[in-house]
Amino acid sequence: MESKRLKKIPQKVIIPLKQHLGTICEPLVKKGDQVLIGQKIGRSVSYYSSDVHSSVCGEVLAIENAPHPNGNKVLSVIIQTTESMETVDFVPTENTSQEKLISLMQEAGIVEHYGAPTHTVLMPEDKKIDIVLINSTASEWIGGKYKTPKEYASQMMDALKLLMKAAGASKGAIIVRKDDKESIEAFEDVEVNGKALKVAPLVGKRRLGYYFRDQDSNIIVASQKRIYGKKILNFFTYNVTGRKVGIGCDPTDVGVAVCSIKSAKALYDAVYEGRPYYETVITVEGTVDCPEYMLIRIGTPFKDIIESCNSEGEVAKIVANGVITGVAQYTDEVPVTKGTTRITLLTKEEVLRDESLACIHCARCVDICPVSLVPSRLTVLADQGRFDECRQMHIENCIECGRCAVVCPSKIHVLQLIRYAKNAIEGAYADAAPKESSNLKLGCCGGE
Ligand code: SF4
Ligand code: SF4
């Protein structure tokens, strides 16, 4: 199944000049300019940045601060669209040297969904990458722009080789979900270095190193359980490679570059089709009847996507990137960016009310935590600013999956409190900001 596009081009798109972590792009257009699809409209001014392209044909109406799904206003190029589908000339790349691939990724605007420009993940300053991973556990093959699972498998394999070359890495792996049978079937028997591949299950203590040796290959595909969470990179890296990532570090500190299926596909398109990153696949869920996956032009306001779906009730709240760890939006005029993965529409009845009770020590949060923390205790320590004790309880291992908050029958703001403590620890406590959310009733779970 291919992702569906919107039937109508939005009348106006809002393209933020910062859709990545790092420096904002410098605008290359001005009010009144005509632009084409794929035209570069924002240029990086530092290595830690990523270029921005127009996703439509039209006229630049303004360059001004506009809503961004992260909740802040960001300098954006506002374009009045036309029906034309004219693109700039897309020129495939024949030179795939390491230097060229790195600069191509920056020029094509390829970023990870959590914001890091992909070229900085593959070639971080002063660090050496020896393993590249494509994390496909969060997106089934249909989450991309592929006609068949086999096409997906073959493009991902090509993309992995490009990513390894860009990073100068000797080994690479694609990690699929163990219950994603279509992906597993698609990768079975794909040829790597003249040998048919077998998808390797990551079970027990068998990590990638075992399978690189067992299959006598520097490229493998492995399957594992899906891990949800906002900050899963370090946990994912440890689970897959066995390399521990320390506090305040990221996988590149242990020689691992983790890329998403989206950035891998974007690199494939940039190299083989000359196409920059101006469209992205998202999921729309909630009170609407929409196709499971939609291919959306970056800059499309949420309003246009919601209007294109059959509504099944009045929308009371819009959340970007999932109800557990995402951001509630204050306007539907906010645009889809490279970081948008999901739009959730909630009815009045579904909007959570703040009706917290004292902790009843049910331990549901403990049972469900995928990294074996004790969330109930951490919330108390966080609430009281006892950050040293939070560290002793390994709070940094929290992947912010939000499951503890979901199962808590007392509706305690478990995730918010844990995040508060983690932020304070990252800032070495000095600038601990006031708590954004605490509804903990002290005197309950060990609040001595
Ligand atoms: S403490 Fe909560 S948010 Fe953190 S990993 Fe455990 S269940 Fe997920
Ligand atoms: S924090 Fe919530 S889920 Fe955890 S023990 Fe207390 S009441 Fe139960």
UniProtKB/TrEMBL annotation:
It is an enzyme of class 7 (translocase). Its EC number is 7.-.-.-. The keyword Electron transport applies. Transmembrane segments: none annotated. GO terms for biological process: electron transport chain. [4Fe-4S] cluster 1 binds at C359, C362, C365, C408. Keywords: 4Fe-4S, Cell membrane, Electron transport, Iron, Iron-sulfur, Membrane, Metal-binding, Repeat, Translocase, Transport, Ubiquinone. Residues 349-379, 389-420 form the 4Fe-4S ferredoxin-type domain. InterPro entries: 4Fe4S_Fe-S-bd, 4Fe4S_Fe_S_CS, Ion_transpt_RnfC/RsxC, Ion_transpt_RnfC_Methano, Nuo51_FMN-bd, Nuo51_FMN-bd_sf, RnfC_N. [4Fe-4S] cluster 2 binds at C369, C398, C401, C404. This is Ion-translocating oxidoreductase complex subunit C. It comes from Methanolobus halotolerans. The gene is rnfC.
